[in-house]
Recover the amino acids of this structure.
């Protein structure tokens, strides 16, 4: 028996995800789209992937641009998330964007950004997977918590509830 889409959305909504705006520069100008499915793929070579709806003109333009920037939104950038999640005429009017001559737009104050060259894309059900080879990246200086998506809502980390739970050491993480 195949689960209903509403059941899939409900159950998988319990998995918190990052909220990112993926941007690119095209001959027609800058483009961008909000995504909630972004992750690393490989360290060697350095690859990441994001998923966007197959019908997203912005995602298709990003693939055509051959390079993109994943802007990991900070928890105070909900307006940027909203602007790029809907069909707003001038999405880049929201947020403080850095435009470089030969690169994709980067969001000032983002928790992190990752600039990639498109390694490939392929259909993945009703979405497309876009794999990028990391070319440059940086994390914010100072404490910038990420914006999260959880149970159908934008969410923030809550330090008051955060409890350190000792686990196995991830020695491999620092290699």
């Amino acid at each position: 028996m195949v689960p209903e889409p509403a059941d899939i959305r409900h159950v998988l909504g319990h998995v918190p995800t990052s909220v990112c705006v993926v941007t690119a520069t095209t001959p027609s100008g800058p483009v961008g789209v909000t995504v909630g499915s972004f992750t690393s793929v490989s360290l060697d070579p350095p690859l990441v992937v994001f998923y966007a709806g197959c019908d997203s003109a912005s995602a298709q333009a990003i693939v055509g641009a051959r390079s993109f920037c994943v802007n990991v939104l900070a928890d105070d950038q909900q307006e940027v998330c909203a602007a790029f999640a809907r069909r707003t005429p001038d999405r880049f009017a929201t947020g403080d964007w850095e435009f470089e001559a030969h690169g994709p737009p980067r969001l000032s104050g983002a928790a992190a950004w990752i600039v990639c060259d498109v390694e490939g894309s392929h259909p993945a059900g009703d979405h497309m997977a876009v794999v990028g080879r990391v070319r440059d990246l940086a994390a914010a200086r100072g404490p910038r918590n990420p914006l999260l998506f959880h149970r159908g809502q934008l969410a923030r980390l809550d330090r008051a509830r955060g409890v350190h739970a000792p686990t196995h050491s991830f020695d491999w993480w620092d290699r």
Notes: The mean pLDDT is 89.
